[in-house]
Amino acid sequence: MSENPPTAAGPLAAMLGLEQQLRKSASLAQLSFTIVNQTQSCVPYAQAVLLLGSDAPSWRVYAASDIASVDHTSPYVAWIERLVREHCASGAEPGQAMLQPQDVAEASREPWAEMAPGHLLWQPLTVEARGGEANGLLLLFRDSPWTEAERALGSHLASSMGHALFALRRIDPMRHLRSLVKSRRATMGMVAGLVILMVWPVRLSALAPVEVIAQDPVVISAPMEGAIREIRVVPNQAVAKGDVLAVMEDAELSSALEVARRDLYVAQAELRTSQHTGFQDPSQKADLAELEAKVRVRQAQLDYAQARFERATIRASGNGVAVLGDPDEWKGRPVRVGERILLVARPEKVDLQVMLAVKDSIALVEEAEIKVFFDNDPLDARQAVLRHAAYEPQRTPEDILAYRLVATPGTDDGDPLPRIGMRGTARVYGERVSLFFYLFRRPITSLRQWLGW
Q1: Which end of the chain is more exposed for a tag (fewer CB within 10 A), N or C?
Q2: Which regions of the chain carry the CATH code 2.40.30.170?
Q3: pLDDT exceeds 80 at position 59
Q4: What single string gives the DSSP state of each residue in 230-244?
C-alpha cells in the first residue's frame, strides 16, 4: 500500500500543474504554447498540433509542438489541414476518436508515414458552458496505441483547455482604446489623421535571403559512369586551363586499355605472318583483307579505350576558381554521365540569387531596385538591379516555396565585388502603393483566399 500513493500522485500532480498553467495564460499565444508543449507531462506523445477556428470545417493550424511559428505554406501544415477537412467531411461522429492511416482518405494516407507517427488521438476542445461547443481541436501523434485511461485523461484536459480558450476570446481588446476616445471631436480628428496616413504612398518591398552565385560558370560534369576517386581542388582554389580537377576510378579502364593494346598486337602479328607467308602460299592472300579489317577494328577499340582512360582524369577547360562543397564527400561516390561535380567560375563575374518566398511575393518591374545587406557587413547596403525572375516557384532547402530572382550587383559605389558564396538579406522594391495596402497586404491576401474572390 505504500507504493500506490506515489504512483497515483504523479499523474494527478501533473494534471493539476497543467490546469494551473492554463489558468495563468494571459494571451492566446501563451495558452497555445502551453497546450502543445506541456500536455506531454500528462499524456505522452511525439507530436501535438492545435487547430483553431469558428467551426470544424474552418479549423486551421495555430500552433505545433517544438515549432516557434507556423508556416502555412509548409507541406506538414497543409497535410494536417487537409486531413482535418477530410475527416470532418466524412460524416464521422463528433468527439474524441483514435485514427490510423487506414482510417483516412487515400490522399492523406500516403504522406502520413513521412509526416507523423501512426497513431492519432483526435481530441476536440469543448466548452461545457456552451453546450459542448468545440472551440478548437488538439491532435496528438505517437507510435503506440492510446489506452482507455489516456483517452479519459485527454477528455478531461480538453474540457479545461476549451474553457481557457473560451475565456480568453471573451476579453475585449478594444476596451482600452474606447476609454481614451471620450469626445466626438477627438474621434473625428483621429479618423481623419488615420485616413490621411493610410493613403500616404510608400514603396512596396519584401525581404528575402540572398546568395552570391557565379555568372555563367563552366559546369564540370562526369564524362562517364563510375565512381570518383578524389577531388584535386578545394573550394575557391584558383585553377588554370588544363589543371586536374578530379580523378575517377580507372582500374577497369586501365585493364580494358591493356587488353585492347594486346588484342591489337595479336591482330598485327597475324597480319604480318599472313603477309610473309603470302609470297610462298598464294592461298593465304585471300585472308589479308580480313586480317587488315581486324587490325583496323582492334585499333579503333584501342583508341576508344585510350579515350575513356584519359577522360577519367577531369581537367579544367578554362581559368577561374573552383566552386564546390566538401571535397571529401565525393570520395568513392558513384556518378552518372553528365552529373555535375563542381563549377569553375570567374571571380569578376558574379550574380545575386534572391529566393523570394511565395507568401512575400510582390509585383516586380524590369530592373527593379534591390538593396543587399551581407551577413559579414550588415550595416553597409549594396545596390543591385533585378535581371530576371522565375515564373514558377521552387522549393528551397528550408522546404519553403519561393521565386528565384537573379540580380546584377552594382559597381558605382567602388566597393569590390562580393565573393561567391556570401550570404545575406535582400530588400526587393516594387511599385508604389498606399500605406494601407503595405500594412494589410497579407491579411487581404488571406481574406481573398478564404472567401474565394
Answers
A1: N
A2: 349-451
A3: yes
A4: EE---TT-EE-TT-E
Sign of CA dihedral 120, 126, 132, 134: negative
Least Cα distance to 261 among 203, 301, 307 occurs for 301
Q: Are 232 and 249 in contact (CB under 8 A)?
A: no
Please give the grid coordinates belonging to residue 429.
Answer: 522594391
From first CA to last CA, the distance across the chain in angstroms is 67
The SS3 assignment for 258 reads helix
pLDDT 10s digits, 383-399: 888 988 888 888 888 88
Fold classification of 349-451 (topology level): Elongation Factor Tu (Ef-tu); domain 3 (2.40.30)
State the average pLDDT over residues 236-254: 87
Look at residues 421, 428, 424, 426 and name the one whose alpha carbon lies nearest to residue 214: 421
Q: Give burial (CB, 10 Å; 0-12/13-18/19+) of 129.
A: exposed
| pLDDT per position as a tens digit, 164-218 | 888 886 654 544 455 455 456 667 878 888 888 888 888 888 889 999 988 888 8
Residue with cell 511525439: 46
Give CATH 3.30.450.40 domain extents, the chain: 4-169
CA distance to 195, 223, 227, 243, 351, per residue, from 218 (Å): 55, 14, 21, 14, 15
Closest residue by Cα to residue 323 from 338, 345, 350: 345
- Domain spanning 4-169: CATH 3.30.450.40: yes
